Amino acid sequence: MDLDRTSPGPQVPLEPDELLDLDRRHVWHPYGPMPGRTAPLVVESAAGVRLRLAEEFCGRRELVDGMSSWWSAVHGYNHPVLNEAAHTQLERMSHVMFGGLTHEPAVRLAKRLVDIAPEGLEHVFLADSGSVSVEVAVKMCLQYWRSRGRGAKQRLMTWRGGYHGDTWQPMSVCDPEGGMHELWSGVLPRQVFADAPPSGFEAAPDENYVRHLHETVGRHADELAAVIVEPVVQGAGGMRFHSPAYVRALREACDEHDVLLVLDEIATGFGRTGALFAAEHAGVTPDVMCLGKALTGGYLTLAAALCTPRVAEGISRGEVPVLAHGPTFMGNPLATAVADASVGLLLEGDWAGEVRRIENGLREGLAPAAELPGVTDVRVLGAIGVLQLGHDVDMAAAARAAASSGVWLRPFRDMVYAMPPYVTSDEDVSAICSAMLAAASEG
């Protein structure tokens, strides 16, 4: 039967009220109830570091994005280089299966990632999202030990205060007490938790804590497949910074006790902390490293798990000599083409200077927050600024206060924080700081 392939023509744009009504009835937003209780803002378009709203909110139609769209849009929005990469690839092919086939964008991206990653990470598994890359990393580690005839090594160790994603294995290594996935305690696999690392990127390492890490790894070594942590910055678990010495201590303990080390750089990768990868602050190479978020510059969902030859060869010499994982959209040509362009754009520019400039602006602009009632800590590292409060944030009030200052922020738990795009101007960094102070005062 012939199909009618007539184009339906352009759709009539929905009015904001109609769109919000449909959104409330049908769209389930992250970390929210269904139906939603708070109407989201309708974004009409975005360019540079600004979000254009369909209607005014707190007297504003445009807001400076202080969040890089959950830390991913490091080049801002509507960037001509990334637009061109997407358009060019779209004209060739938007997707082709990765099983039995390959293509230039994926190969180029994998080679680029190997070239810039900590030395020794030579193999790249492309995944759909950051959380899935953690699932892949865990599967790599479990299968490595099973292939080595040590199937009892099947637990994971981490430290408290972490966050690694919303799928099953990542949830099991998020903090089970007070974390976002506390609901699933008793259902998730039971992992090994060390104490949270002492705070302070520049603080002298606590030798008692270093000893605690070594002892915890040693005590559970026979059952541990891997240790997995976020290096230097614990992201959605609390935006805490810690000394790189603790990452080095974990590398040493893992080497001593024959345990694999996985570093989750989904949030910290591609310059956010002032180093291209946070592992560089510690001078270590993990056995597996997870990347995501900024990988495509916020254009498309894509992630990667990189591993050493030791891990890859260990799996490939096993009874089942394949990594049995293959997402439908693995190595998607459109996503990998944009990712390759995004990483190239980062490397060709002065990303380190831009992050340093933003860091200086955040330090200066947030300094007055130390005198605000309810603010217990002010911390900045790279292009990350955090105001720690002594109480949970009233998110709606804080967001309104920030919007009144012309900035989009999304505080959570007991924090007001910003992670701006690297192209954010000094003037806009100053506006972000003012908005953070206003949000902390109102929230």
From TrEMBL:
Q: Name one GO cellular component term.
A: cytoplasm
Under Enzyme Commission nomenclature, its number is 2.6.1.62
Q: Which residues are recorded as modified (N6-(pyridoxal phosphate)lysine)? A: K293
| Residues noted as binding substrate in the record, renumbered to the chain | W70, Y163, K293, G326, R410
> Which protein, by its recorded name, is this?
Adenosylmethionine-8-amino-7-oxononanoate aminotransferase
A GO MF term: pyridoxal phosphate binding
Reactions performed catalytically: (8S)-8-amino-7-oxononanoate + S-adenosyl-L-methionine = S-adenosyl-4-methylsulfanyl-2-oxobutanoate + (7R,8S)-7,8-diammoniononanoate
- State the oligomer form and interacting partners: Homodimer.
The lineage's top-level taxon is Bacteria
Binding site residues for pyridoxal 5'-phosphate: G130, S131, D264, P327, T328
Q: Which UniProt keywords apply?
A: Aminotransferase, Biotin biosynthesis, Cytoplasm, Pyridoxal phosphate, S-adenosyl-L-methionine, Transferase
Query: What HAMAP family does the database record attribute to this sequence?
Result: BioA
Native source species: Streptomyces bathyalis
The keyword Phosphoprotein is annotated on this UniProt entry: no
